[in-house]
């Protein structure tokens, strides 16, 4: 465990260096700072060389209401999804988060895991099996189709 403090560029740079020497670093910070402050380092040191860095971006979106606008992120997913070689995971509940982290640890290449701040309701049963890139039907119906991601599920 390395605490980089409020130095997100250094956090990502150190993670890229660790990945270069065979480690599997999980860098964690608020989503607004992971995408905003560290964007250039993620692009140049993680995504271009396909470094095996996992970014766990917490407090994503507007789930940090009382922390104010400086900690709320609405543009981060647009920034991160524009990066080459980046895989983005947006788990919906605790079970899927655990499965997504396991997947990330075994995946070779950069991964961004978007995590909210608030506790989420359980959506998936214990027999749920995470499959990257597959949609999941939560409930069947005939009136409309609702597509959601992450905590909106």
UniProtKB/TrEMBL annotation:
Residues 1-123 form the Transketolase-like pyrimidine-binding domain. SMART domains: Transket_pyr. Its cofactor is thiamine diphosphate. This is Transketolase family protein. InterPro entries: PDH/Transketolase, THDP-binding, Transketolase-like_Pyr-bd. It comes from the Bacteria. PANTHER family: PYRUVATE DEHYDROGENASE E1 COMPONENT (PTHR43825), TRANSKETOLASE-LIKE PYRIMIDINE-BINDING DOMAIN-CONTAINING PROTEIN (PTHR43825:SF1). Belongs to the transketolase family. Keywords: Thiamine pyrophosphate. It comes from Clostridium perfringens.
């Amino acid at each position: 465990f390395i605490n980089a403090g409020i130095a997100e560029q250094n956090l990502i740079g150190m993670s890229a260096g660790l990945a270069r020497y065979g480690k599997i670093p999980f860098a964690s910070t608020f989503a607004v700072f992971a995408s905003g402050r560290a964007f250039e380092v993620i692009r140049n040191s993680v995504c271009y060389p396909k470094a095996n860095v996992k970014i766990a971006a917490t407090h994503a979106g507007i789930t940090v209401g009382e922390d104010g606008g400086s900690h709320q992120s609405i543009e981060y997913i647009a920034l991160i999804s524009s990066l080459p070689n980046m895989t983005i995971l947006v788990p919906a509940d605790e079970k899927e988060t655990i499965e997504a982290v396991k997947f990330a640890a075994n995946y070779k290449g950069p991964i961004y895991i978007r995590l909210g701040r608030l506790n989420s309701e359980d959506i998936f049963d214990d027999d749920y099996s995470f499959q990257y890139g597959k949609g999941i039907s939560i409930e069947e119906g005939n009136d409309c189709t609702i597509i959601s991601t992450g905590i909106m599920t």
